[in-house]
Design goal:
Number of helices: 21
Helix content: 25-40%
Low-confidence stretches: 625-629
Radius of gyration: 28 Å
Strand content: 15-25%
Largest sheet: 9 strands, mixed
Structural class: alpha/beta
Mean pLDDT: 94
CATH architecture of the largest domain: Alpha-Beta Barrel
Number of strands: 25
Length: 629
């Protein structure tokens, strides 16, 4: 499978784009005419630059408003094409995209368009160039790939073929199954893009809201299943117009694009095993069975504040590492690892971000298969020198500068707690906390798609609909991803302004990802009582919230009084499920803990309560200095 990306898909100068595309592992590119014209180098020099990066020019695009024109516009269109053919020869490009005309004077008629394209294909063939015809979703007369194919079929020239674009077909809700009737050797090129489902003008939607396959709502997998069924074996290319991408990191966007193509074809193979998919075998998406540990990086001066909070939540100092300054705090199935080692990754993380979560350990069925899949999807493997009797636990670099470790039973990695640690003998305490309910990660809004793609492509996790969370100082976009059984949950919170609570956390922690940790309780009232007795500082919720709560749900007075007594927020769904939650006050850098209880199959995160939690935190923070990590 040859992979390609249009230069318009990523930010930067042409030279920056070439470097990013090559580093991401693409085989070639579509050179967008505007990118070429803006560069000071000659066509030959640009072509050589591309080849020096180990890339090939797979498509020159776009050539607009060609077919169906009256004279003298028709003659002028042929002259324009000859000029572009000369330029392509200097670049080393052998294929050009012709998009269906939007010219106001263009005349309809399939035979007329076929005659024009056949004549141009003859001129192109003399120069060793092939032409691909594409139906723009907003084309004046041709806006459907079925019509474009009929034009190509009638033109019947070996140098003329069809270009398919998933956005143009799926955006118009054309059944992708119709592609299966097209001969694969007459499909010259395939462009791919996803997009969120938004009701708006097709052209505006296309120019501003496209994203990578797997980041939107279009049936791109079904589209590629149909394309693959034709026998098409040419390049798969990304053509993405997106305002966020234009301002993002060229390397990051290119890496996401390459990852999205691998994941897409992996999904095609899984959905239709009989199809021939030109992709090396990789393990299937990994089922995450839970969060094995959460590791904090700190130092001896700042660690006591976190240790105090853990003790007030009922955690005990369960174990000490045999070789390192690393302790394990435990309650139920929750392990909090506190790393104050003066060297290594955790120490580097602390120097960059302060006290914060530097590492998550995930329980998986097969740790080696997990890193194999992650590596195939362009994740970076992680390792550190091992000390005496230390296990080599597979790991990758995660998003937000942190690390993910993978622990399984089959290879004995789950014995790490007995092999590398010695028990402290501290008395076990039980405040009712049983497991990690979810981890909340914060990032800049324009990174949300990238983070969701990272998790979704490697792990068997489902994306929930994106929500708007209102902060008094701006908007935060929130999206949950979860394993099918809900046992592993991560919420992604995209900050659009540094004035929001999420944005302030990013600034204060210098980009640390985990902003809060939600721990499940089997009895939230008992947990609240025990934690209050131990001195845990709870976030105060105003009385107005409880007056409104009673009006919304009709809860009895004694229930409202009980919730208010413990500063517990409440939400119920339409199936009778209930969600109860309370928050601790912020610790280093603004990180905080949340205690939750789910009842009756409730599957959300208390989204309706988020504005009240944010406002309460902001009131607390006014005039108060949170200890800085």
């Amino acid at each position: 499978m040859k992979t390609s990306i249009a230069t318009v898909s990523i930010a930067g100068t042409l030279r920056e784009k070439l470097a990013a595309i090559a580093k991401a592992g693409f085989d070639g590119l579509e050179i967008f005419e505007q990118d070429f014209l803006q560069d000071a180098a000659s066509p030959r020099e640009v072509g050589q630059m591309i080849r020096d990066h180990g890339l090939e020019v797979m498509l020159y695009q776009p050539f607009r408003d060609f077919e169906g024109l009256p004279e003298p516009l028709r003659t002028r269109a042929f002259d324009r094409a000859r000029h572009k053919f000369d330029l392509m020869a200097d670049l080393g490009a052998e294929q050009m995209l012709i998009c269906s005309s939007v010219h106001p004077q263009a005349m309809g008629g399939i035979d007329r368009a076929a005659d024009d394209l056949a004549e141009l294909a003859g001129i192109a063939a003399e120069r060793g160039i092939r032409l691909g015809y594409e139906a723009l979703a907003w084309g004046r007369h041709v806006n459907d790939h079925r019509d474009a194919w009929e034009i190509v079929r009638r033109a019947d020239h070996p140098a003329l073929g069809l270009i398919l674009d998933s956005f143009h077909s799926l955006g118009r809700r054309i059944d992708p199954e119709t592609i299966r009737r097209i001969p694969g050797d007459k499909i010259f090129f395939v462009q791919l893009a996803d997009a969120p489902l938004i009701e708006m003008d097709l052209l505006y939607w296309s120019r501003h809201f496209r994203n990578m396959p797997g980041e939107g709502d279009l049936a791109v997998v079904d589209f590629m299943r149909a394309v693959t069924a034709t026998g098409y074996d040419g390049p798969l290319s990304l053509e993405i117009f997106n305002d966020q991408f234009r301002g993002g990191s060229p390397e990051g966007i290119a890496r996401d694009g390459h990852r999205s193509l691998i994941w897409l074809m992996d999904q095609v193979r899984c959905a239709e095993p009989a199809l021939k998919v030109d992709l090396p075998e990789i393990p299937g998406r990994i089922r995450v069975e839970g969060i094995e540990f959460i590791e904090f990086a700190s130092d001896p001066q700042e660690a006591p504040l976190l240790e105090t909070a853990l003790g007030q939540m009922g955690f005990r100092r369960d174990a000490q590492h045999r070789n390192k300054s690393v302790t394990v705090w435990r309650q139920g199935d929750i392990r909090i690892v506190l790393n104050t080692e003066p060297t290594g990754f955790a120490h580097s993380f602390f120097l960059n971000h302060g006290t914060g979560v530097c590492d998550l350990g995930l329980r998986v069925s097969d740790a080696q298969a997990t890193v194999a899949r992650a590596a195939a999807l362009d994740a970076t493997l992680f390792g550190q020198p091992l000390g005496p009797e230390e296990l080599d636990i597979p790991a990758i670099r995660s998003v937000g500068g942190s690390v993910l470790h993978f622990i399984d039973e089959k290879s004995g990695l789950d014995d790490v707690w007995d092999i590398e640690f010695t028990r402290t003998g501290e008395t076990e305490r039980d405040f009712g906390l049983t497991r990690v309910d979810h981890i909340a990660e914060t990032m800049n809004y324009d990174e949300m798609l990238s983070w969701a793609l990272f998790y979704g492509s490697i792990f068997d996790m489902e994306q929930r609909p994106m929500l708007d969370v209102v902060d008094p100082d701006g908007l935060v976009r929130s999206q949950a991803i979860a394993s099918p059984d809900g046992g592993t949950r991560i919420t992604l919170n995209g900050a659009q302004s540094h004035r929001t609570l999420a944005g302030g956390f990013l600034a204060d922690s210098m980009g640390s990802a985990v902003q809060h940790i939600a721990l499940a309780s089997r009895d939230i009232l008992a947990s609240a009582q025990a934690m209050e007795d131990a001195g845990f500082q709870v976030l105060a919720i105003p009385e107005n919230y409880y007056h409104d709560l009673q009006a919304r749900y009709g809860l009895p007075d004694d229930r409202i009084e009980q919730l208010q007594r413990w500063n517990i927020l409440y939400e119920a769904d339409d199936r009778g499920g209930e969600f109860l939650q309370f928050y601790g006050q912020p610790l280093q850098g603004g990180l905080f803990f949340e205690i939750v209880e789910r009842r009756g199959g409730y599957d959300g995160y208390g989204a309706a309560n988020a504005p009240f939690r944010i406002a309460a935190l902001k009131r607390l923070l006014r005039g108060k200095t949170i200890p800085r990590a």
